[in-house]
Design goal:
This protein is mainly alpha-helical. Helix content is about 80%, strand content about 0%. It starts with a helix and ends with a helix. About 40% of the residues are buried.
Length: about 170
């Protein structure tokens, strides 16, 4: 395994910490913000791991980042943003969505340059989608039958695909 494996493992540890915070097993006064910080740290590490997987042309890098940000911004606007919530929470949710969009966009650009990275890109997209639906549930009272199942299945699948895609050398 390459150096990206260490970043993937550390990112996964941040994800576990985020899960424990969000489940309030690690009691913190602002558990949603703290959970976002833990997950965000993990995605920063996943981004660093992506850098180890290959160099992208500047155009492809910008396109991937732009697409990831566009999806994150639209998702934040439609699912997470809530003017009735404190401004700091809306800004934090936007920053978090853009970070997840950065990771998904970078993974997508890697997949466009080498299709062997497709599982990584799918994982980043699933994680982003999962957290946008979760944000809708937390901040805008989004509800539909099976919402918890949708969140957990897309989150677990996304996390698994990210970690597997980063933890294995592309052959």
């Amino acid at each position: 395994a390459g150096p990206q494996s260490s970043y993937a493992a550390a990112g996964m540890a941040c994800g576990l910490t985020g899960d424990l915070i969000m489940a309030e097993l690690i009691p913190l006064p602002q558990h949603v913000i703290a959970g976002m910080l833990a997950f965000g740290s993990g995605h920063g590490l996943y981004l660093r791991a992506c850098e180890q997987l290959g160099r992208l042309s500047p155009g492809l890098k910008r396109a991937g980042l732009g697409m990831g940000w566009l999806v994150a911004l639209i998702g934040w606007w439609t699912l997470a943003r809530n003017p009735k919530q404190p401004l700091v929470l809306n800004i934090a949710a936007l920053g978090y969505a853009l970070l997840l969009g950065s990771m998904a966009g970078k993974a997508g650009a890697l997949a466009l340059s080498d299709r062997r990275h497709l599982p990584l890109a799918v994982g980043g997209s699933l994680f982003l989608g999962s957290d946008l639906v979760l944000a809708g549930e937390l901040f805008r009272e989004l509800d539909f039958p099976g919402i918890g199942d949708v969140i957990w299945l897309s989150y677990i699948s996304g996390q698994a695909l990210i970690v597997d895609g980063l933890g294995n050398e592309v052959r």
